Amino acid sequence: MAEAERIIGMPGTPDAARAEQERPGDDAAPQERSGAEAAQTPADGPGTDEPDAPAERPRGKRRIAVLFAVAGFAYALDLISKMIVVAKLEHHEPIEVIGDWLRFEAIRNAGAAFGFGEAFTVIFTVIAAAVIVVIARLARKLYSLPWAIALGLLLGGALGNLTDRIFRSPGVFEGAVVDFIAPKHFAVFNLADSAIVCGGILIVLLSFKGLDPDGTVHKD
């Protein structure tokens, strides 16, 4: 009998074993799914607002980094161009770039941008320094990328011309700015002036669109 039971029971044994193996697997699958769902619940639940709140500070820091990166690039480009102009172009004949329409000509400018107000050099120096201070203070509340670029252009241009005011002759805070871009029928200017004008135009456009430096948008 034992031998017969062994022979008869042999075919059923794998099925029984498989059935026993499948039952825990079937029970485990819902448990694994429920565990996965439980793990996903906090990510989809109301608690997600708390991890996002500290992300505002890094986002603001990135905008500040963009501001100073743009300012540094504009300042370096202006400084290098002026060094080349003083070394290679000053006291030499102008270089024609596009016939009579555009040429490079080294000129010392004691006034403001584009040669205006030569009698108020000290005042323009103070204004440039004040602009730098205002931009630095505004950077703490900066969360808008376009505003970061605009303020970076203003800051780089102001620093470029302020450097000339401080370190060039005839004296501290009275130094003459190096200008060299001379379009036909227009005042001679430099890259710092261009950065200031581009930054100012961008700020006007952003203001018309209602975008504030902190990233909020308002409509009048």
From TrEMBL:
Alphabetically ordered keywords of this record: Aspartyl protease, Cell membrane, Hydrolase, Lipoprotein, Membrane, Protease, Transmembrane, Transmembrane helix
Compartments where located: Cell membrane
Gene Ontology MF terms in the entry: aspartic-type endopeptidase activity
Superkingdom of the organism of origin: Bacteria
Location of region: Disordered: 1-58
Pathway(s) this gene product operates in, as recorded in its UniProt entry: Protein modification; lipoprotein biosynthesis (signal peptide cleavage)
Entry EC no(s): 3.4.23.36
One annotated GO biological process: proteolysis
Reactions this protein catalyses: Release of signal peptides from bacterial membrane prolipoproteins. Hydrolyzes -Xaa-Yaa-Zaa-|-(S,diacylglyceryl)Cys-, in which Xaa is hydrophobic (preferably Leu), and Yaa (Ala or Ser) and Zaa (Gly or Ala) have small, neutral side chains
Entry membrane topology: Multi-pass membrane protein
Gene Ontology CC entries for this record: plasma membrane
Active-site residue list: 179, 193
Transmembrane segments: 64-85, 112-135, 147-167, 187-208
Entries under Pfam families matching the protein: Peptidase_A8
Protein family membership: Belongs to the peptidase A8 family.
PANTHER family in alphabetical order: LIPOPROTEIN SIGNAL PEPTIDASE
NCBIfam families: lspA (TIGR00077)
Protein name: Lipoprotein signal peptidase
Species in which this protein is naturally found: Streptomyces spinoverrucosus
Native organism taxonomy: Bacteria, Bacillati, Actinomycetota, Actinomycetes, Kitasatosporales
